[in-house]
Write a structure and sequence with these properties.
The protein is of the alpha/beta class and about 220 residues long. It is about 20% helix and about 25% strand. The chain is built from six helices and 13 strands. The strands form three sheets. A six-stranded mixed sheet has the order 1-2-3-4-5-6. Strands 7-8-9-12-13 form a five-stranded mixed sheet, with no helix packed on it. The radius of gyration is 16 Å and the shape is globular.
Length: about 220
């Protein structure tokens, strides 16, 4: 992993990208790991004035649990896809999904109430609404937004000029790269994988599990 990229384990993989003119944080982890997140940001040399933008790949609690706190403490603008804003503003993970997800293992259905004990996500209003192809140079990093729906309608990734793709929960890196076990819309998720194949990517950094080379991208 590039020295400019710092991975922080905070209930999900959060990624700090250091640019020439500041830092961009991708996802914020669960609220119960807030101290760890702040400690790791400090270790990486990212102070309040350096954090130019917080990008949320989607609205689930394990990715947005510290977004409101960072918005308050750092004054950092929060960014998400325009289709994900309602989920973030209401704190309702169902607000931007089908009534019944195409892929949701029964074991996960049973464990979801327990998972809420790990921390709730305080609703947050995005300051910046992103769309596919939006350039992030204005926030100090050489990167652009890639819309990757499937896990949710407004799920996004961030693709750097060096070929690093941060894909949120479209894909997992556990054991071997695969589609996330929770997929709201399976045909759309498969289309997102095919979209990834067309992009100038070297390494994929998922929301959970280790990073992997583009050659390990699973079949749609």
């Amino acid at each position: 992993m590039s020295e400019r990229i710092h991975r922080i384990h905070a209930g999900c993989n959060c990624y700090l990208i250091r640019g020439a003119e500041g830092c961009v944080l991708i996802d914020t982890g669960v609220s119960t790991r807030r101290r760890r997140l702040l400690r790791e940001l400090e270790r990486a040399g990212c102070r309040a004035d350096d954090l130019r933008l917080v990008v949320l790949t989607h609205g689930d609690a394990d990715h947005v649990g510290n977004a409101a706190a960072l918005q308050d403490a750092f004054g950092a603008p929060i960014a998400s896809h325009e289709l994900e804003a309602r989920m973030l503003e209401t704190g309702d993970a169902r607000a931007n999904r089908q009534v019944k997800a195409d892929r949701l293992p029964w074991v996960l259905r049973l464990l979801m109430p327990i998972g809420r004990l790990l921390g709730e996500a305080k609703p947050v209003k995005p300051n910046v609404l992103l769309s596919d192809g939006d350039d992030l140079h204005a926030y100090g990093v050489d990167a652009r937004v890639v819309h990757l729906p499937g896990h949710s309608r407004g799920s996004i990734g961030v693709l750097t000029g060096d070929g690093d793709l941060f894909c949120g929960d479209l894909l997992n890196g556990w054991r071997r790269p695969s589609l996330h076990f929770f997929i709201d819309d399976l045909p759309t998720a498969r289309a997102s994988i095919e979209k990834i194949r067309t992009l100038p990517i070297n390494t994929i950094h998922p929301g959970h599990g280790p990073s992997f080379a583009i050659e390990q991208l699973p079949r749609a």
